[in-house]
Design goal:
By secondary structure, the chain is an alpha+beta fold. The chain is built from 15 helices and 15 strands. It folds into two domains: about 220 residues, Nucleotidyltransferase, domain 5; about 200 residues, ATPase, nucleotide binding domain (Nucleotidyltransferase, domain 5), CATH 3.30.420.40. The longest helix is centred in the last third of the chain and has 26 residues. The protein binds adenosine-5'-triphosphate and pantothenoic acid. Pathway: Cofactor biosynthesis; coenzyme A biosynthesis; CoA from (R)-pantothenate: step 1/5.
């Protein structure tokens, strides 16, 4: 499959990859000043908590693109659960531009950048903010805002009340909602949605964000060279204290191809990526983030993702799941199944006695373990089917996926 490419858009289009490994951002679109090395020379071009150690001199700014659309610049992903809005806040306004900037534009900028909560459900993820990004010759900051897709109607009203609809006539949008709500955008605020494919954009986004930050791609490793299962901390229910001995290590993503991209949204898509413009969707599963949240709400009475995650963090899945040792009394050594491996998710819950004792926390934890183990297993099958093998790290990573280390990877990626 080839990635979509077009002249005008601010989102996922990019030129074909060069023969050399460094990631090149779309020339006509997203231009953060990446040096000939693969990492951005701008220290500040990274998320605040993960500043890079290098101190390369900045490259000269790219000239402004005179064909770029007028500000404000937005991109949206309207997903099955969450709508994500990216706002580019330009930094270097010159005098002439400042004079030209309308009151409405200034108000929009102030409203979006001075608040981190919008109404009851809209949030700006300040920790995700990317500084010093250059897009189409303009330097600025990328802000990441999200709200439940069920609130699209309220968003359209807000866009109208802030005068956004008078300034923006086209928004670049991905996700199923770009199709589903196309007519609403037209009718309510007279905005056109220019649709881009969500999976094309996903790959361009992963490569873009990785090129900004050497620490972006990481894995959890045991503190010494012993295999994961021989760690003293490696006994369920994996308390936060026991897991704290694991160390987060940057994963070298400089020659990534081929890789398997597992995108956990409401549902899950798995893509084999052979190059920046060359991928296919190998598989997917309907048991994804939406399932975790939906089942947690049903089983625990919680009503938000934050609540569900907090419950899961405090729970113990071994009171809910049936482990190999519950069946074998220990390991099933012949086939290398350790006693503490989950043999049957929720397998203890057929007992009324056990059901009476189980806590909401344990149910939330078991839900998270079930979903993440399943995603890990499918991902592993896809990788081995497609001969996607990595070096030594992979053994640990894959092994971890089968255990609930994956919970932590999951928590990291959803937060
Ligand atoms: N604040 C939050 N509110 C709701 N869900 C959240 C939140 N933070 C993380 N999540 C998790 O992320 C999932 C949604 O992820 P994401 O936004 O990537 O998917 P989506 O784009 O809505 O779905 P899809 O791509 O399948 O259409 C939820 O199902 C939930 O498990
Ligand atoms: C439908 C999408 C692609 C929407 O993002 C996603 O939710 C998904 O991949 N769901 C899993 C569908 C499947 O079973 O393959």
């Amino acid at each position: 499959m080839r990635l979509h490419r077009c002249e005008g858009c601010l989102a996922a289009c990019r030129p074909p990859r060069r023969a050399t490994p460094p990631y090149e951002l779309p020339k006509d679109l997203v231009k953060c000043q990446v040096k000939r090395g693969r990492r951005s020379p701008h220290k500040s071009c990274v998320r605040p908590s993960l500043a890079m150690a290098d101190s390369l001199p900045p490259t000269p700014p790219t000239p402004p693109d005179n064909n770029a659309p007028p500000m404000p610049w937005f991109g949206m992903d309207i997903g099955g659960t969450l709508t994500k809005l990216v706002y580019f806040e330009p930094r270097e306004n010159n005098r002439r531009e400042l004079d030209k900037e309308t009151e409405v534009l200034k108000n929009i900028r102030r409203y979006l950048t001075r608040n981190s909560a919008y109404g009851k459900t809209g949030r700006r993820d300040v920790h995700l903010q990317m500084e010093n990004v250059t897009i189409r010759g303009r330097r600025g900051t990328l802000h990441f805002i999200r709200f439940p897709t069920s609130e699209v109607g309220a968003f359209l009203q807000l866009a109208r009340s802030k005068g956004m609809a008078d300034l923006v006539n086209t928004i670049y949008a991905t996700g199923g909602g770009a199709y589903k709500f196309e007519e609403d955008f037209k009718k309510e605020v007279n905005m056109r949605l220019s649709k881009l494919d969500e999976l094309d954009a996903l790959i361009a986004g992963v490569l873009f964000v990785d090129s900004m930050n050497a620490q972006e791609c990481y894995y959890w490793a045991p503190p010494n060279e012993r295999p994961v299962h021989q760690q003293p901390s490696d006994t369920p229910p994996y308390s936060a204290e026991a897991l704290s001995v694991y160390v987060r290590k940057p994963y070298d993503f400089s020659s990534p191809y081929p890789f398997l991209l597992v995108n956990i949204g409401s549902g899950v898509s798995m893509l084999v990526v052979n190059g920046p413009n060359d991928y296919f969707r190998v598989s997917g599963t309907s048991l994804g983030g939406g399932t975790f949240l939906g089942l947690c709400c049903l089983l625990t009475g919680c009503s938000s993702f934050e609540e569900a995650i907090a419950l899961a963090a405090a729970g113990d899945n071994t009171t809910v799941d049936k482990l190999v040792r519950d069946i074998y009394g220990g390991d099933y050594a012949r086939f290398g199944l350790p006693g503490d491996l989950v043999a049957s998710s929720f397998g203890q819950m057929c007992s009324a006695e056990r059901r009476a004792k189980v806590s909401r926390e344990d149910l939330a934890r078991a839900t998270l373990v079930t979903i993440t183990n399943n995603i890990g297993s499918i991902a592993r099958l896809c990788a081995s089917n497609e001969n996607i093998e990595r070096d030594g790290v992979a053994d640990d990573c894959w092994y971890s996926l089968r255990r609930d280390r994956k919970i932590f990877a999951f928590l990291e990626c959803v937060e």
